[in-house]
Structure formats: C-alpha cells, structure tokens
Design goal:
The complex is a heterodimer of chains A (about 625) and B (about 350).
Chain A (H helix, E strand, L loop, with lengths): L1 E2 L10 H24 L2 H12 L1 H17 L1 H6 L1 H28 L13 H4 E2 L9 H25 L14 H23 L1 H4 L5 H12 L5 H18 L7 H13 L11 H8 L5 H5 L13 H10 L2 H10 L5 H5 L6 H10 L41 E4 L1 H6 L1 H13 L4 E3 L10 H5 L3 H17 L4 E4 L2 H10 L6 E4 H10 L11 E4 L13 H10 L1 E3 L22 H16 L5 E4 L2 H10 L4 E3 H8 L3
Parallel strand pairs in A: 3-4, 3-5, 5-6, 7-8, 7-9, 9-10
Antiparallel strand pairs in A: 1-2
Helix pairs in contact in A: 1-11, 3-12, 5-7, 7-8, 8-10, 8-11, 12-13, 15-16, 16-18, 20-28, 24-25, 25-28
Chain B lengths: L2 E6 L3 H12 L2 E6 L14 E2 L4 E2 H10 L5 E3 L4 E6 L6 E5 L4 E4 L1 E4 L4 E2 L16 E3 H8 L13 E8 L15 H15 L4 E6 L9 H10 L4 E4 L2 E6 L5 E7 L4 E7 L1 E6 L1 E2 L2 H9 L27 E3 L9 H21 L1
Parallel strand pairs in B: 1-2, 1-9, 2-5, 9-20, 11-18, 12-13, 12-18, 13-14
Antiparallel strand pairs in B: 3-4, 6-7, 7-8, 10-19, 15-16, 16-17
Classes of the chains: A mainly alpha (about 625), B alpha/beta (about 350).
Chain lengths: ~625, ~350
Amino acid sequence: MIDRIPSGFHPFVIPFLVGMGFVFLYLIIGFIRLLFELNHKERQRFFLSLINPKIALKNVRDIFLDCLIHVKLWKRNKLLGFMHSSIAFGWFMLIVLGHIEVLLFVPGRINIFYYPIFFNYFVAENEQTLKGSLLFFLMDFFLLIVLIGIALAMYKRVHSRLFGMRRTPWPTLMNNIGLYSLWAIFPLRLLAESFTAHISGGSFLTIPANWLFRQFLGNDLNMLPTWWVYSIALGVFMLVLPFSRYMHIPAEMLLIPMRNAGIKVRSARKGFARLEVLSCPNCGVCIDACPMTANRANVRDCTVYLTRQIRRHNERRINEISDKCLMCGKCTAVCQVGVEGPELRLMQRATRSYGIQPDYSSLTANPLGVPASNTQRGDLNANPLNANPLNVAYFAGCMTKLTPAIGRSVMSVLAKAGIEATWLDRDEGLCCGRPLYLSGRIEEAEQLAKRNEELIRQSGAKILLVSCPICYKMFREHYKLEGIEVVHYVDYFNQLIAEGRLKVDKSAVCYVYHDPCELGRGCNKYEEPRKLLGRIAGIAEAEKNRAESVCCGGSLGSLTLNHQQREAITKGALNNLYASRADAIATACPLCKTTFARYADRPVKDLAEILDAVTHS
Amino acid sequence: MKENVVIIGGGIAGMAAAKQLQVLGYQPIIVEQKSNLGGHVSQWYKLFPDMTPAQDVIDELAKDLKGVNVFLETRVLNWERSLLQHEYDVTLSNGVQIHTKAVLVASGFRLFKAAKKEEYGYGVYDHVITNADLERWMRGREDKRIPAKPRAIGFVHCVGSRDLKAGNSQCSKVCCTTAIKQAIEMKERYPDAEIYCFYMDLRLFGKKYEDFYINAQRDFGVHFIRGRVSEVGETIDGRLQVKAEDTLQGKPLKVQLDLLVLMSGMVCNVETQTWAKELHLNIDNDGFLKSADNVMHIVESNRPGIFYAGACTGTKTVPETLAEANAAALAIHKYLSDD
C-alpha cells in the first residue's frame, strides 16, 4: 500500500476532527469535574483501585463484557443482545483493525489521528498487498456485522416486541439526531469505501459494490462527496453525543471502574450519581419492568425518565418521579448498566426540608408512654433480661404486629423446636426506622436505629430473629450490632430443620412463592425461602420471579401513590402469581401478605404460618 | 293467567316486594340461595331502635307469602334477554325456566370478611368475634369465643367500611347504631363489665338513634373512645390487649379486654357483580349496583324490566329496605301496566 495523498490531509476530515475534538474536550473537563465532586475518600479509593491488579483486571473484563459484548442484554433477549454487540463490538473492531492497517501499511502515519478512520481514502493499493487480504476481508466482515446491527435497530423502531420490549421511551430531539447520524455512519462508510475500492482495494462487500457503481456511474465524481458526508455524519454524532443518550458509551466505561472501586451514590446529582445518570442508555427496559406501569399507568415515572429529567434539571418532575417510586429496586435488577434508580430517588428525597423536625433521640423503650400494666414475657421494662440473658430474641416489627398470625406462628415454631426465645417488642417496641429512611429522613431514621440498637443490646441476645424483611434490611445495613447475629427466620428455620430440631410434614397444598422486594432484591435471599417452602409444601414459580419479582404495591417506599393506583399494581402482581396456577400464595413479608390478602382470590400465607401448621410439637 | 315477576333474593326486600306484588295481582317467584327466607335479618336478634325482635319482622313478612312461588337453595344459572322485546328467560339451577317481563334484583349485601383486617386478630385470637357472630350468639347459638363472665368488652367500629385500604370507601350506615345496641345488650347481660366503643365518627342519623346513644352513655355507662384501634395483641393469660389512640384527649391508650367485637361493614355482593356485568347493568364505584338515578329512580336500573330493591344498591337500614321493596313493587306494576 502506498500513500495516495502526499500531504496526508484532505478538508473532508474537518467535520470529524471538530466533532472528535469537542467530545474529547468535553469528556476530559467532565471527568475532572466529576473527580472534584467526589470526596477525598472516594477519590483515594478510585485511584487505589486502578493500581490494584485484581480490580484492574475486573475492570477490563467488565468493560469488555458489558460495553462491547453486552452480555446482560444477551441474557435478556438474544436478538437485542446481538443488535447491541454487533454495533458496539463491530465498530470497536473496525477502529482496531483500522489502526492495524495503518501500522502495517503506512507506519509513518500512525500519529495522524484520523488516518485509521479514513484509511481507504488516503491509500492506494499496489502489488505488495494481495487482493482480498485478510485485513480487507475482516474490515468488510465487521462492517457487515455493524450493518446488520443497524438494520435490526431500524426494525426495532417499528416492532420492539421482537426484541422482548413492550414499551420504549419517548425519543427526544437530541436522541433522534444522534440516532439518525449513527444509523447513517455505517451505510455511508460502505458507500465511501466502495467508491474508492478500485484504488484502495477492498473485499467481498466493497469490491462488488464498486464494480456495480462503475457500471452505471462510470466516473469517480461521487467519491469525494461521499467521504465528506461520512465525515459529517461522524462529526454530527460526536457533537450531539454529550447531549444525547449516547453519552452512556463513555460514561459507562468510567462507571464500571468507579463501581468496582466501591463508590456509592451519596448525593442526588453529584459525583457518582451524575455518572449513573449519564450512563443511562435510555433503553427503557425499566419501563416494562416497573410494577407501577401495570395498566399503562405511571410510565413517565420510571427510572429512564428520572435520569432524563435530572439531565434536563426539571426540578418539578424530578421531585414527582422521586416521590412516587415504590423503591422496589426492580429497575436496577433489570438495568444493563446498573443505574440505581431507587438510590438516586432516595438522595433526592433526602434533599427536602420539612417544616416539622421530629426529634427521636430522646425516645424511650415505651413509646406509648403508658406504664407497663402487667408483667409479661417480652416486656422490656418488666422482664429483667440482663439478669437472665436469652439466646434468641425475636423482633416482630410494626408490620408483623398488624399481621399477628405471623408473629404467633414464629413463636409457636420456636416453642416446638424447644428454643426459649424472648419476643422483644411483644408489648412495646420502636419502629426499625426503614419507613423514615425510605422517605429520605435519614437522620431521624438513624436516631431510631440508635435507640433500637441499645434496646436490642440490653436484651443480651446472641441472635436477633426477624420475620419482616423491611426490618431485616434496616438491621443489616444501618445498625451496628456487633456480636449479635441478625437472621431472618427463613435461614433460622432452615437450619433448625437441617439440625433435626424441627420435625415437619409436607403439606399437599401447592404454593407460589412471591419474592418480597426487601428480602429478594434487598437482601439477596432467593433460594433460602424456596428451600424452606419446598420442605413443607408444594412449590410453583410465578411468571416473573426472583430478581424480577413484581412488587406487591404495598411498599413503604412510595410517598404519593394513592390506594387506587396501588390497587392496580397489586392486581398486576397477583396476575403474575396466578400464572403459576398454584392453590395459594406464600410469601415471607408481612406487608406483602396484607397487601395481597386484600385482593387475592386464593389464600395468602406467610412461610412461618405454613411451617407452623405442618410442624410437630 | 297472572304475570310472572322473578325476584332474586329472598331477604326482607324480596319478601316485602313479593307480598306487595301479589296484592297488585302478579305472580312473584322468589329465588333464594339459602335454605330459608329472611336473609341477614333472619340471623339478627333484635333491631334498633325499639329492640324489635328480628324474628317478628321475618314472621310478619312470611305470613303473607302463601301464593308466592319460593325456590330455596336455588340460583339463577342463566339469564337471557329476548331479542325483540324487553323480556327475559331466566333459567334456575333446579331446571325451572321462567319467561318474564320484569325481574326484581334484591340480592342484598355481604358482610365484610373481618379476617381481612388481620391486625384486629379475627381468626387469630380466641376472643375476637364480629357483630354477626354476636347476634347469632344472642339468638342462642353457642360460641366458645365469648367468655362466661367477661370483665371488659370492646367494640371496634368501621371494620372494612370507610376504609380505602380495605377497598371500601362507603359508610356502612348501620354499624354505629348496631354497636350501641349491642353494647347496651351486653351491658344488660353483664352489668359489671366495662364496655368500650372505639369509633372514628358516630353517624347517628335515624329516628331515635341519638337517644339511643345518650342512653348508652348515661344509663349504661358505655365508654365511647374516639380513635381507631391500631393493633390487637394477646397477653400471656389469654386476654386481649388493644392499643388505640384517644384522639379527643390526644393520648395513646391500652386496655385489656375479654371480648372484642368487630363491627364488620356492609360491602357489595361480589356474586351480584359477576352476573350484573354480563347483563350490562351499571355498577357504581362502591361496587354496588347503580340505580338509574340516585334521587328519583333509586329502584330502577339502566335496563328496562330490571328493578332493584334493598341493599344491592347500597348500604341500607331495615325500614329503608322495606320502603324500597314497596316502591319497587309499584314501579314494576307501573312498568307492566304501561306495556
């Protein structure tokens, strides 16, 4: 190969250079700004993680698998995965192969930034390169792959269901400009390379195309304009990239190492939160996943619209979207990038100031202010627990108190296993603080947590048993209970059965297990409850289960959903469970139980109740 | 030959309407699911405000039903409208097929299932019953949940009514007075027992209801506490512990009881809803059937030839239901004679 243009420059590269220059400048400034938004500790963490070989290796692997191959999309839908990886990986290979070509054939030009991109214009083929050499073939091959991806993307606009998506987000102007320029880039590249294929050489795509065009065009007049348009399409794409959803391409490449470094969302808009917002690819997978969108309602309140409104600084909508969410975490579970919608919303809620600032720091164990009238087991004031420390303390929590059958069953199972346990909040107790926490009143929640920690420690228990996943998550994540093991009963009862301390029968009833948000996605307990249920009854799976389980609609997370809206969500979730055709519904959360029981056409039971019914004394 | 009129439901509405229709010269046919006539009222003991025995009402209504066709333990299987006229072919579960020009729906209400409000402990604790359970017990049915000598009894108003969480926004209308009536009856049986009524509003709209309320406080010393019960627990000795807030005093409150009576509200009959949808009858947002007009045409439906009486269109007291049954009979008479 030889240089065709001695200067190595042609004005048509200018649009591309302008776009590329702009993007680089924008990203560098953005990166520096982001670093300043992180606090000292986070910055330190980030830089240290980059030199840690283990994390660095993970970064490379994650970026390759997530950004180029899109493994998570393949898992969701093969066609959707193929579409994304063909465009991303194909484009990546075109760039890499372009560089290899420059290195091999015109090594003197490797420092010229645009050379690999427009290589075919600047070179002429001579005898040294064999016609249809491997590189030319690969270039055409990957171009074909990208073109197939683009064709699929175009078809997806018309028929997204084929790609496993019912609803896609409403496009914005900038997203559309980005989209159409992206769609234009590769067909234009094919045209441009075809027009020059008789000079620069080509392979199975470009040479026949070149021959075809020459049959009726007969001259090279189209060559230069096509390269111009190709360069302009690239330039336009680069120029709108920072203002469109395509910002997710560079943002995700930074998001992955930052997440691997252990940095978390700490503010509503700044630092890592900004990176998450920019990493949202606006694909809209969260729309179909969101339980609120049952009956086509609340579509504009999904995480994809939250990130969009945050980028637009539309404060009214940001607050609306933040307050409405159930905080079930399903959008994060299905998100290919891992945008933590609930976390962003929580931080937004935390920015609000309230007229009344309650102070819970002076709370006593006796929140009702009623003197303990009679001595009971479990009465914190009356029972001298310190003198006689018990191993297991059961904390029912407010929700279990509203579903007394669950609390009773837990105590009954414990009694049958011969375990003497104290019911910590049988008579009086404090809220674990999770509802306050979820509403963004983090300080007040911590005051409650602090007081509760003292009460739990006072009991002298070694094991804190809970039946409510809401409390469980709060205890695990926000309480400092060193030396006390916090267990949800699914684990504890599984252990008791395995140790042979509980003798159980198997009920003939077939239950469909509903994963409560706080236990499943919240505490990553998917298999333990199934193991317990499988031991005591028949088990069936809902249409969407485990990480994709549908929130019951009763969640404490939402601040603004009314009863009618929640009813629609609950009925949607029930239909998901009914798909299993099970006789009854089982769950491990008192809130899910009451919510479902309101509208369900079949019995709704907590695992503790089912277990108690089949346990021998 | 006399013209047939099908009456769906043999409660007091159906019985009163049948009696009236017979007088007007029609052949009423009552279709009743249960094995006896009288519906919910046949389960009650005494009716407010004059403590009329409920059985007397049923007996009086039943007395005049000699010529009426009554199908007990029967359901409507199929209900077809003729294409040309507004006439109906009703097929019953016992195989009988009736051709009729007018149908009176008197399918009534259902009592809210108190177990749905698990926080009150119905079905969980030993001494929690509903208003209906108490009435049956007073009529002589044995109930182990009611202790022999209760020292303290609580009544919880508005269980499942005026409760959006339970899916019912409507007021059940009769429970306030029923609670007062039952409180007085219990106080008469157990003069030493303390009786507490937990209410959120007292809606004593009817004749002599307010006097009833004053009596309960002045003569019987029933305690009325404004505030909903938050949770019910059980003490180690098997008594019930009720936590509530006294919103008049602004204080939380905790009492121990031997018996808790839940005033289950009247809610729509879900079974009625199913066939009403098939017949394109309008259903109101509270789940009850929707009258043609809630002021002027309360006994008429949105379809010619179909009439309503009683609690199928909303919560009603006994006298209201009886009045409506008579009104419906007249409306049917007018409809059939205009024909």
